[in-house]
Amino acid sequence: MTTIKAYAAVLAAAISLFATAPAAMAQSTVYDCRMSSLEGRGFIRPAIKFSIDFDKGEAAVVDDVVMRRYGKPIPATLTQLGNGQYRLKWEVKNVRNGSASFDLAYTLQYRPKVNAFNIRAQVRGYDNRPFGTGSCAISAGASLLG
After folding, report:
1. What residue spans define the domains of the chain?
2. Other C-beta atoms lying within 10 Å of the C-beta of residue 34
3. pLDDT of residue 38
4. Please, is 144 exposed, middle or buried when counting C-beta atoms within 10 Å of its C-beta (0-12, 13-18, 19+)?
5. Which CATH number does 27-139 carry?
């Protein structure tokens, strides 16, 4: 009977360890951003949220356009620039706007020293390049990554 109790104690400890491991291992930072200037024509929204895992070099983004199209955050390509800034790039395909459908390529540049960013969308096949600028705050919310 004591062997069963010992196994139960080990199993309980292992479950406890694995239940808390994801939170302990998560090294991503979540940024909650608001636009202060916006020329979006519907493709740049007033708010955007992104997560960056600096250790893994991964990022994810979400805004109203992404949620409407995919229903969840999507991965972004993360590039650390030589000046301490970060660039995120992602695409949202087949976005409906009225009777038309568009593919969009986004670029966001984040400047952590001043908690500011600028964002630009390229509407594939058109000269339109909507843009916005604003500021970000680190959020206590859950990571958008995986």
Report:
1. 27-139
2. 14
3. 78
4. buried
5. 2.40.160
- What is the DSSP secondary structure assignment for residue 15, as one 8-state letter? H
Long-range contacts of 106-110 (CB under 8 A, 24+ apart): 106/61, 108/48, 108/50, 108/61, 108/76, 109/81, 109/85, 110/31, 110/50, 110/85, 110/86, 110/136
Burial of 24 (0-12, 13-18, 19+ CB in 10 A): exposed
pTM over 0.85: no
Find the mean pLDDT for residues 119-137.
91
Measuring CA to CA, how many Å separate 128 from each of 95, 101, 105, 106?
15, 14, 11, 12
